[in-house]
Write a structure and sequence with these properties.
The complex is a heterotrimer of chains A (334), B (262) and C (251). Chain B has 13 helices and 1 strand, in the order H-H-H-H-H-H-H-H-H-H-H-E-H-H. Chain B has 262 residues and is mainly alpha-helical. The two termini of chain B are 30 Å apart. Chain C is an all-alpha fold. Classes of the chains: A alpha/beta (334), B mainly alpha (262), C mainly alpha (251). Chains in contact: A-B, A-C, B-C. Strand 2 of chain A pairs antiparallel with strand 1 of chain B, so a sheet runs across the interface.
Chain lengths: 334, 262, 251
């Protein structure tokens, strides 16, 4: 009987392996795209558009969406990826440190960025609490929704935007950090990803959701009953795209990335709520995406770039967010 | 008076916790119209999700059935030291959180895990691919056949088997002609429970799947995917398909349930 | 069989225990007593206790009604009890959201609250006590109850001193099973509770989040605590099973 069982199990295993290889042996190359939690709609359109071109014909895609930092860690743990489209350069740096992405990824066109957006406040229709700027978020009784900065890219942008906004208004480093801590005493939910935070807000929790302009746009397009406000001091969110060193289809992957920065794809970005990096296409959508005098970037002096921001704010042991979370009783890890 | 109010409490309890919510699911699935429901259910990634769930179930159920029978035989018939421990180990997946199961697989097969580099060097993908999901599902659905067969075997006693043995039957013949027919309803009931568990698995596969659309999303993961992407028709739609399958399973359970206390 | 068991069950457990103890006892303790971990474990155990207690009462009442009462629709009710066994847990969470979440027709919204967690756990553990008490009630010899009644004992007295002691082991096994299930539950909770750390994050969600964010040490530490609780409950269930079948073995 043990013999029969062993034979049965081997047959079974062989069967599984055969199924797996048969599934893999489809015509044309396959690209695995690992992305952060919110760009599914626009990426689906971009992939479709690319598949109409000679470069993209016959290329099939596997797509995975989730919280940016969590996705980067999953790729580090073996999640197959040819192209990553994450929400912060910080998360791409995680892969650089794992040896999976070239350290010169941000020397590509547009500094390795596929599209931009900005930090906005999503509020209930009619803006009942009259939220216009960062000072309104810390008024008594205002409840804020923002994701967990240890798992979500969106959360990292929100933290740096809050800090940077105060610095732009003339506050010192210490005062601006104190503001961030005060902000987090108003936070009522810290979901793992930007999309989860959106869902929490849409199901009725909180007065304001700090999120991507593109996400607020997507929610409205999906028929949700919200509006959004771009604060005067806000941060430019630069969404990076990179090819993995270990990709078996590097040429195809690079061609896809080039397409993502082409006019066709940039136009799709604009249509779906993202700010195109291409100046030409951005001009076309200038009315849709108002600029603000106070928009600053991660490489500006007050933030000092991702490597610095990561060390100062998001280091899992000594970063400022660890101390702030502990002080307000929030999560100390993702 | 006591009889009526007790009945009322029980009925109210079931309505509030079980039946009311279930009725609402059907309402929500159709709330936005039949068209979005149909589009979501026939989406290629959704169809793949159902297929993947069935594939994993088709692998896990036979394995656990064979193992369950062998295990039950060992626990009941062979008086070996540690039979009690084997019993406890087999029962463990019933009491353990599926997320912990997923974590254990990470610790074994992740890049920094015990066997991670071995599999990576040989180009075999365990985590974030079907193999890990199959292993996880096998783990969580392990106990059912064994647990159903053990009490039946105990009740039966081994006189018939001993009789067959003295008449010259081999071990295999005895098993096939004497033991198996006498436990067959327990086995079938166990298979029904195992199948239900496999179809409904969420926690362990959620940890190890990588959520790759059209590749490592099972039906249960797809429910979450649709829900998080504002697709109410899709998530409740898959839910009613799974609920319908559950009702069929429930019927099978009710008809086949071992008659207790008779 | 032993190879299969070792590879499928023992090896993963070994990996978990080893990882959690990898950095020594003090590190393990530090991780497990971190504020977020403690909050998650407290919430989980608290909810499990509440749900087990509710199940002990409501499950027994339901089993009683199913065995001793008779009315139209009883067999339907009996069949329906097993639904949480057959239904995927994530669908369970979704069903509760449908009736008690946002835009509920009843006008309540318990999403993202601790009540939601208790409700989800009630759903998932509903069958346990009912199914462990039912067979015992069925087997009960009615003669002692009749005798007591004919001697003048009131209904409450009969239940308390004759029925209850007999069905107690049944109730306790059901409670232990329900408790084990409640401690480990994730699928039905993940959509409905909001998973807010320190407020509605249960142990299973804590482990899940920490796996995703690469914190295998934190995840393993809490997971080992959950594993220990599971083992203990298995011992209790096994012990109760031994006690109740003891008279059968010596018969």
């Amino acid at each position: 009987m043990p013999m029969n069982k062993a034979r049965k199990l081997t047959l079974l295993a062989a069967g599984v392996a055969a199924l797996a290889t048969a599934a893999a042996a489809t015509a044309g190359p396959n690209l695995s795209l690992v992305a952060y939690s919110t760009p599914k709609t626009v990426l689906a359109k971009i992939i479709l558009a690319w598949q109409q071109t000679p470069d993209g014909k016959d290329v099939s895609f596997n797509q995975s969406y989730g919280a940016s930092t969590d996705q980067a860690r999953a790729v580090g743990q073996g999640l197959k990826a040819d192209v990553v489209f994450l929400s912060t350069g910080d998360d791409v740096n995680l892969l650089v440190d794992d040896g999976l992405v070239d350290s010169k990824w941000n020397r590509q066109s547009y500094d390795g960025i596929a599209a931009d957006t900005v930090v906005v406040f999503a509020v209930r229709n009619g803006n009942p609490k009259h939220i216009k700027g960062w000072a309104d978020l810390v008024k008594p009784g205002v409840q804020v929704v923002t994701p967990n900065p240890f798992s979500s890219g969106s959360a990292k942008w929100n933290v740096l935007a809050a800090y940077g906004a105060e610095r732009r208004l003339g506050k010192t480093d210490k005062q601006a950090t104190a503001y961030v801590q005060k902000l987090f005493t108003h936070v009522v939910s810290q979901d793992t990803s930007g999309r989860n935070a959106t869902n929490t807000f849409l199901s009725g929790k909180g007065d304001v959701l700090i999120t991507y302009e593109s996400e607020a746009f997507a929610s409205r397009q999906a028929g949700q009953d919200i509006q959004y406000v771009i604060p005067r001091q806000s941060m430019l969110i630069e969404l990076p795209i990179a090819v993995l060193k270990s990709s078996a289809n590097k040429d195809v992957a690079n061609r896809f990335v080039r397409f993502v920065k082409s006019d066709t794809a940039q136009d799709l970005f604009g249509r779906y709520g993202f700010r195109p990096v291409s100046k030409k296409i951005a001009a076309k959508y200038a009315d849709k995406f108002p600029s603000r005098p106070g928009i600053f970037k991660v490489d500006d002096k007050i933030i000092g770039g991702w490597r610095n921001a990561d060390k100062v704010w998001f280091d899992p042991n000594k970063g400022r967010m660890v101390k702030i979370e502990q002080a307000v009783g929030g999560p100390s890890s993702g | 008076m006591p009889r009526f109010s007790l009945r009322g409490i029980a009925v109210l309890y079931l309505l509030a916790v079980l039946l009311g919510p279930l009725a609402m699911v059907f309402y929500r699935a159709f709330e936005r119209g039949a068209h979005p429901l149909w589009t979501s259910l026939t989406d290629p990634n959704t169809i793949h999700a159902f297929k993947l769930t069935l594939e994993i179930t088709a692998i896990a159920v036979p394995i656990n059935t064979v193992f369950g029978i062998v295990c039950a035989l060992a626990i009941v018939r062979r008086r070996f030291p540690g039979a009690g421990i084997v019993n406890a180990i087999v029962d463990l997946p019933l009491a353990l959180s599926p997320v912990v199961v997923g974590l254990m697989l990470f610790l074994l097969y992740g890049r920094t895990g015990w066997f991670g580099s071995f599999f990576q060097d040989h180009g075999i993908q365990i985590l974030f691919a079907t193999p890990a999901m199959v292993i996880a599902t096998i783990f969580v659905s392990l106990p059912f056949v064994a647990r159903e067969v053990v009490p039946t075997l105990r009740e039966l006693g081994d006189e018939q088997e001993q009789a067959a043995h003295t008449l010259g039957a081999s071990g295999w013949q005895t098993f096939w002609r004497v033991t198996l027919p006498s436990i067959r309803w327990a086995v079938v009931y166990g298979v029904v429970l195992t199948t239900a568990r496999c179809l409904g698995e969420y926690g362990a596969v959620a940890v190890v799947s990588g959520h790759i659309e059209g590749k490592t999303e099972t039906a249960t993961l797809r429910v979450q995917d649709y829900y998080e992407n504002f697709n109410q028709s899709g998530s409740y739609g898959i839910a009613i398909v799974l609920a319908a399958i559950s009702v069929i399973v429930l019927l099978a359970m009710t008809l086949l349930r071992p008659k207790e206390g008779s | 069989m032993t190879t299969f068991l070792s590879v499928v069950v023992l090896l993963p457990i070994a990996a978990l225990v080893w990882t959690s103890g990898k950095h020594g006892r003090h590190e393990f303790w530090a991780v497990v007593s971190a504020p977020e971990a403690v909050a998650a474990l407290k919430l989980t155990l608290g909810a499990a206790v509440i749900v087990s207690a509710l199940n002990a009462v409501l499950g027994t009442v339901t089993a009683w009604v199913l065995v001793r009462d008779d009315f139209a629709g009883k067999s339907l009710m009996n069949a329906v009890i097993d639904l949480p066994f057959a239904l995927p847990t994530i669908v369970g969470g979704l069903t509760l959201l449908a009736l008690y979440g946002p835009s509920s027709p009843l006008g309540v919204d318990i999403a993202f609250t601790r009540t939601a967690i208790v409700l989800a756990l009630m759903f998932e553990t509903l069958p346990f006590v009912v199914r462990t008490v039912q067979p015992v009630l069925l087997e009960l010899d009615l003669e002692s109850e009749e005798a007591a009644r004919s001697l003048g004992a009131g209904e409450a007295r009969v239940v308390r001193s004759i029925v209850l002691p007999n069905i107690l082991p049944g109730i306790l096994s059901g409670v232990a099973l329900a408790f084990a299930r409640a401690v480990g539950e994730i699928g039905s909770i993940v959509l409905i509770s909001g998973n807010v750390p320190f407020k509605t994050e249960v142990a299973a969600v804590f482990v899940f989040n920490h796996i995703q964010s690469g914190d295998q040490n934190g995840a393993s530490a809490v997971a080992v605590v959950m594993l220990l609780i599971s083992f203990l409950l298995l011992l209790v269930i096994g012990g109760l099973r031994y006690l109740t079948t003891r008279h059968e073995r010596h018969a």
